[in-house]
Amino acid sequence: LGMPYLDLHAETNDPGLLTELIAAIGSENAPEPNVLLGQIRDAWHRFRPRADQQGLAYLPVRTRGTPLQRQAMKEGTVVYLPDLGTLASELEQFGVSVLTLYPQDATALRDWFRSAYGERVVPTSQLRLVPRVDDAGGNGNSAEFLSESNLAWLIAPLLTLIAFYQQIRGIHGTAFRERLDRLREMRVHWVERIELVVLSGDVEVMRT
Fold first, then answer.
1. What is the pLDDT of residues 9-51, one digit of tens each?
2. Residue 174 phi, psi (nearest 5)
3. I need a surface site. Which of 64, 75, 99, 101 has the fewest CB within 10 A?
């Protein structure tokens, strides 16, 4: 009949489905944002472009307070590729744009993104989160044991919750002993200011 056919299980280098879904972001005809997000992630999962294939003009991203938006990939734009999934949600809280695909697909497509977009797409695997305490790296050397601090009173109610909340396993369960040891080892360090800094190598990219 000449109608287009979509194989939901086969990989493809055709960006048509992705392009249409991205174009639907913000449209009145689009489904609820979380549904559309899932559809876009499924489309990324099928998309396996050629190494020399041109990038898309718009990419779908998430950021703080915005579950889904369409980002024009013009010069100077920077978005983050979540090939290290543990950093993706943290980066969203910094207010930066994170691409909407699963970590395994981000890893598979990383070389293509680098070829198609250059420095406009930054893999999260190149980044690391570092605490900054009063503008210095926090090492906790001056920390005191929780049991010897002004917060020592917290230990008893915490252990009570661990022992008797929900499963009610008491003080003889493995979970209770593990958390007891953790509380014994826990230290407290009082500071005036603490920030999280995102580093690429030794270069600061952003901070809270």
1. 789 999 999 999 999 998 887 878 889 999 999 999 999 999 9
2. -65, -40
3. 75
Q: Which of 19, 72, 67 is nearest to 43 (CA)?
A: 19
3-state secondary structure of 59: strand
CA dist 34 to 30, 86, 147, Å? 11, 20, 45
> Coil, strand or helix: which one is 55?
coil
pTM of the entire structure? 0.72
User: Which one-letter DSSP state was computed for residue 54?
Assistant: P
Residue 141 confidence class, pLDDT cut points 50, 70, 90: low
- pLDDT of 164 reads 79
Residue 62 bridge partners (DSSP): 98
* Residue 71 to residue 95: CA distance in whole angstroms: 14
Q: Find where tokens 């690429």 sit.
A: 200
Give 191's pLDDT tier (boundaries 50, 70, 90): confident
The H or E element spanning position 87 is helix 85-93
Backbone φ and ψ of 90, nearest 5°: -65, -40
Residue 135 token pair: 């503008």
